[in-house]
Design a protein that fits this description.
With about 750 residues, the protein is an alpha/beta fold. The protein has five domains: about 60-80 and about 205-350, Rossmann fold; about 95-205; about 355-405, no CATH class; about 415-550, no CATH class; about 570-745, no CATH class. The protein contains 31 helices and ten strands. Helix 10 links the parallel strand 3 and strand 4. Helix 3 packs antiparallel against helix 6, helix 21 runs antiparallel to helix 22 and helix 29 packs across helix 30.
Length: about 750
């Protein structure tokens, strides 16, 4: 009995002890010590996966750091050389915004959808949807739409608007009066839709070729883009084409891999795999393709681009000068590349006047310039940022009033300013650089070893280069050499300055015993540039032309115009896909560049353009003259009248008048612009307004077009028809074929 009681009494105690031990173990397991133990156990079990994750993280981190370091070095180098002007960068047009669409791609697609829907989110949009519902166009898009579908929808809507504008759409009788309203509104819709279409191109494309004239800020823009990508934590690989002297695939591999023992393909695939896991894009930016003339580089470029674009998370931007794109680089950047490409001209957008003035004011303040600059001269400065920089350095602390801008004189003065007291030594070095370029027919850069055997520069020359935006230098390595030896390359920061210096060197070098340039030798040299398709061809020929013009050498100027410019202009295409806004005629560009009074032979060249109208260039020439009138420039409508009034055949006279008006907006002004031009001229240039009204009178008198009555009604109330007739009396008369009598207007 006693045993039984003791046994029963002892059982709860033992049970309590067991329960306490289990609770202690459970508490330990729930504590950090238990978690740590569990983690150690998991690591022991899954250690290969853990090692893989750690190695991948380290690889990605080191890759990003090395690439960012390389980007920063290149950006700083370009900044030091004057190619990238920090602090002065402003968004001159929509290009920077478009690049944001490119770098944010799908994330920013919804912005386009939102803007598209907002465009039709009113009573007019409802009417459009009701009237044109059978044309399968959607005026409201879903946010889930793909980028390619978005592009197609916007394109369809633009086509519909163009058909509405040209009255090609059938509508029910009850909607006819409303449909006429959209014939007018279609212009506004098309303008906004085309902007959205370009944005959708930047969203859906993985490969962009960006073109623009020399000095228009391509490098400036890409440097700024690189800094933006690095700052936002995105992977960016920025390369300057000048640095690549051989196969770009080999150059890229050496740039990317940690050391030669690591295979590039494996290393790169691992990086791409990690980036895809983390949803990271890799942006490859290749600047200034036109500045690399190495055939091995050019021939390897299409293969490199295609290899990179095989990866879904890689996007590529390439920049190239527009002057040489179609002729020389389209083959390598577009035709031989299998991937789809979108070519974008950074000059296709209208500059913001606010942005122009902001940069102009910054320079004025920085260089203490207190003079006045005409609008015509300002326009040239706004087009080329480095030219603006040179202009203000030349006019530092100046109070001069600038009416016209002569690049020839600015470049000469700039060289004088930067050479300073060491003029002789610096000019000798500059001539030596040009001499090697010409002898080797290599105009992008010169190796220092070809200039000096000991590879040394004097302190004076180093200072001359480092303190200016004329010449610059960079370190390179001799490739395919047993002993890799450091060398330096010397190159011009500004292409137009290079062209000027080459022209000056050639003119000084090819002289006779009387120290005068030998014209035939100069012509032969320019022929060789054309044959070689050298990057400096147009600029060098332009500066040689301006030299002869300043010397009053009529024969040489006429030879250059006929031998080079006319041959080029006669082959101008009408409405080419890559025609830039403005003058396409090489001859007209060189004649009008400096705002000088035209010589007789130059007027004859203008006459050739007016009468022959190659590539419909007359409409662009007329727009140029009207813009000159609007800003009180050097040339007026009298230049056009002088040619027009010399025509005494009615048919030819009417054809010339008709040719002054463009078929579409990029090729000049239209009849719809007449009222606007008249009002602006009346406000800014009354004398020019009088000349323009004489032109409009002739246009109304001799030609008919749709909606002529509206233009006629406006001008009948603003000009004195009898006064214009009396002014034109005896200036215009016609001798019809087979008749002896003259007929006046």
């Amino acid at each position: 009995m006693l045993y039984t009681l003791l046994t029963v009494a002892a059982e709860p105690v033992e049970q309590n002890k067991a329960m306490n031990f289990e609770s202690i173990l459970e508490a330990v397991n729930e504590s950090w010590f238990g978690s740590l133990a569990e983690f150690i156990g998991n690591v022991a079990t899954y250690w290969p996966a853990v090692v893989f994750v750690v190695v991948c993280a380290v690889l990605l981190l080191t890759f990003e750091r090395r690439i960012n370091r390389s980007n920063n070095i290149l950006v700083e180098t370009l900044s030091k050389n004057g190619k990238y002007i920090k602090g002065l960068f402003v968004e001159l047009n929509d290009t920077k915004e478009l690049l944001r669409y490119f770098t944010n791609d799908r994330k920013w697609k919804n912005r386009i959808v939102k803007d598209y829907n907002r465009l039709f989110d009113d009573e007019h949009g409802c009417l459009l949807e009701t009237i044109y519902q059978k044309y399968d166009v959607h005026f409201s898009l879903s946010r889930n739409i793909t980028a390619d579908e978005l592009y197609k929808e916007i394109s369809k809507t633009i086509d519909l608007m163009k058909n509405i504008r040209s009255r090609k759409c059938e509508v029910l009788e009850e909607y006819e009066s409303t449909a006429h309203l959209f014939e007018v509104y279609a212009y506004r819709y098309i303008e906004n839709l085309e902007k959205l279409l370009v944005r959708s191109e930047f969203v859906r494309r993985s490969y962009i070729v960006m073109t623009g004239s020399a000095g228009n800020g391509k490098t400036n823009l890409l440097c700024n883009l690189t800094e933006m990508l690095v700052y936002s934590g995105k992977l960016c690989i920025f390369m300057n084409s000048k640095d690549i002297k051989s196969d770009i695939n080999e150059y890229f591999e050496k740039k990317i891999v940690i050391n030669e023992r690591v295979g590039f393909k494996v290393y790169w695939k691992i990086q791409m795999f990690l980036c895809r896991m983390l949803r990271k894009k890799v942006y490859i930016i290749l600047d200034a393709i036109n500045e690399n003339e190495t055939m091995e580089f050019m021939e390897s470029l299409p293969n490199f681009i295609d290899n990179m674009l095989k990866y879904q998370n890689v996007r590529v931007i390439v920049s190239c000068r527009s002057e040489y794109f179609d002729l020389k680089y389209r083959k390598y950047l577009v035709d031989e590349v299998a991937s789809d490409v979108y070519c974008y001209d950074i000059m296709s957008e209208t500059y913001s006047s606010v942005a122009k003035e902001r940069m102009y004011r910054n320079y004025r303040s920085a260089f203490n310039f207190t003079g006045e600059v005409s609008q015509e001269a300002k326009d040239k400065l706004f087009q080329q940022l480095l030219l603006m920089r040179m202009f203000f350095e030349v006019h530092r602390d100046s109070k001069a009033n600038i009416i016209s801008l002569n690049k020839y004189e600015i470049f000469q003065k700039y060289i004088e300013v930067i050479t300073g007291k060491e003029k002789r030594e610096c000019n000798a070095f500059l001539d030596k650089v040009i001499a090697v370029m010409c002898s080797n027919k290599e105009y992008s850069s010169v190796r220092l070893s070809l200039l000096n055997e000991d590879n040394n520069l004097s302190e004076k020359v180093k200072e001359f280069m480092d303190e200016s935006i004329l010449l610059s230098r960079k370190l390179i390595l001799h490739q395919n050499s047993i002993r890799e030896k450091e060398d330096e390359e010397i190159y011009f920061v500004f292409d137009e300055m290079r062209d000027y210096c080459i022209a000056k060197y050639v003119l000084n070098k090819m002289c006779d015993s009387a120290d005068m340039p030998v014209e035939d030798d100069i012509m032969t040299y320019m022929d060789s540039l054309i044959a070689e398709k050298a990057v400096c061809t147009e600029g060098v020929i332009n500066y040689i032309y301006w030299y002869y013009k300043k010397q009053g050498d009529v024969t040489a100027c006429k030879r250059i115009l006929d031998r080079f410019m006319k041959q080029h202009d006669q082959s101008l295409e009408s409405y080419g896909m890559h025609r830039e806004k403005g003058l396409n005629s090489w001859g007209l560009r060189v004649i009008f560049e400096n705002g000088d009074p035209l010589m007789v032979y130059e007027k004859e060249y203008v006459r050739f353009i007016v009468l022959e109208n190659p590539g419909n260039e007359l409409s662009r020439l007329f727009e140029f003259i009207i813009l000159q009138e609007l800003k009180n420039g050097s040339y007026t409508l009298e230049l056009f009248f002088e040619i027009l009034f010399s025509i005494h055949q009615t048919k030819q006279f009417c054809n010339i008048l008709k040719g002054t008006v463009a078929s579409w907006y990029r090729d000049g002004i239209t009849t719809k612009d007449f009222k606007r031009i008249d009002k602006e001229l009346l406000r800014n240039n009354p004398a020019g307004c009088k000349r323009f009204r004489s032109y409009v009178f002739l246009f109304l008198h001799f030609l008919n077009w749709e909606n002529k009555e509206k233009t006629e009604d406006y001008f009948m109330h603003v000009y004195d028809e009898e006064l214009i007739k009396s002014d034109l009396k005896r200036k215009i008369y016609f001798i019809e074929e087979g008749e002896d009598d003259e007929s006046e207007i």
